[in-house]
Amino acid sequence: MVKVLLTVRSEDKGKRILDAHPQASKEKLSYVIVPDVAKDGAFDEAIKSSPPFDYVLHTASPFHFNVQDPVKDFLDPAIKGTTGILKAIKTYAPTVKRVVITSSFAAIVNSKQHPKVYSEEEWNPVTWEEALDHSNVYRASKTFAEKAAWDFVEKEKPNFDIATVNPPLVFGPIVHYLNSLEALNTSNQRFRNIIQGQMKEQIAPTGTFLWVDVRDVALAHVRAIEVPEAGGQRFFVTGGYFSNKEIVDIIREAHPNFEPKLPPKDSPSDFPADIYGINNKKSLEVLGIKYRSLEQTVSDTVDSLLAVGA
Q: Which PANTHER family match (predicted)?
């Protein structure tokens, strides 16, 4: 029997997750509360007090635009949260074979000088000084956290190997038991804004032109556990290119009732003519991922937003 232990930041969040999976008994699915992942020893008790683990998925790291303190809000949770759980596993969980870490395209991208092709070979060259600028801090936090993980394995020689999953913007259906329109994850806010008419006058800049479906990201994490060859690898997981104009056009086609709230059909696209290339071959060949289409993801995402009152 596969047993899964979750770490959550509050009792309420843990109960909501259990309530949403009534088919899973308490023996199969349980949680412990870790209120502050940046705190020294944050994961120690969770790992010490639980049955032996075979695998660990480390997914937690903040992504939002409400930056008050770059170090406290982003850098510490990302870096200390990652090194903290690796230390706890090495010390208290000798049975663990692999740790899969959710990194990001943010740890790959070089916004100052894009390479001809992005792949797992690229690293964001951001410095600590640049990281303190609010506009850089999220990307820096993911970069430093992932580098800290690889450095830990190299220096500490633990009983496990690691793999990282590096997605760009993650779109897809929201989880109704955790999300409301007010608490919507940052990547999906553009969908809410479009269907509520916030882009009727002008389509907002796309920003990053790469995306992936949340369900494909989830599968990549599972495959990174299951596939022996995934150990010691980074995986750039992306479904390809997109623009906000393309999302608008798909919504117009799939949900014509939103037409009065959408920008004109002839609105320009900001998709660049000379965009960088992408190489996600490793995720296809090693993990066996078959990516969903943008059309399916957009339609499913809008349906999920409508279900919570959009």
A: NAD DEPENDENT EPIMERASE/DEHYDRATASE (PTHR10366), STEROL-4-ALPHA-CARBOXYLATE 3-DEHYDROGENASE, DECARBOXYLATING (PTHR10366:SF564)
* C-alpha atoms less than 13 angstroms from C-alpha of 95 in its C-beta half-sphere: 8
d(C-alpha 276, C-alpha 256), whole Å: 33
Q: Domain ranges for the chain, please list them.
A: 173-211+240-310
Triad 99, 100, 104: Cα angle to 5°: 140
- The neighbour count for residue 195, using CB atoms within 10 Å, is 21
Can you count the helices (H) and strands (E) in the chain? 11, 11
Other CB atoms closer than 10 Å to residue 72's CB: what's the count? Answer: 11
Note down pLDDT in tens along the chain; length 310 residues.
678 888 888 898 889 888 888 887 777 888 889 888 878 888 888 888 777 889 999 986 655 556 677 787 788 888 888 999 999 999 999 999 999 999 999 999 999 999 999 999 999 999 999 988 888 888 999 999 999 999 999 999 999 999 999 999 999 998 876 666 666 777 888 999 999 999 999 999 999 999 999 999 999 999 999 999 999 999 999 999 999 999 999 999 999 999 999 999 999 999 999 999 999 999 999 999 999 999 999 999 999 999 887 7
156 vs 153: CA distance, rounded Å: 5
CB 105 within 8 A of CB 236: yes
If we measure between CA atoms, which residue out of 216, 272, 206 comes closest to residue 239? 216
Cβ–Cβ < 8 Å for 283, 233: no
Give the integer Cα–Cα distance in Å for 166 and 147. 13
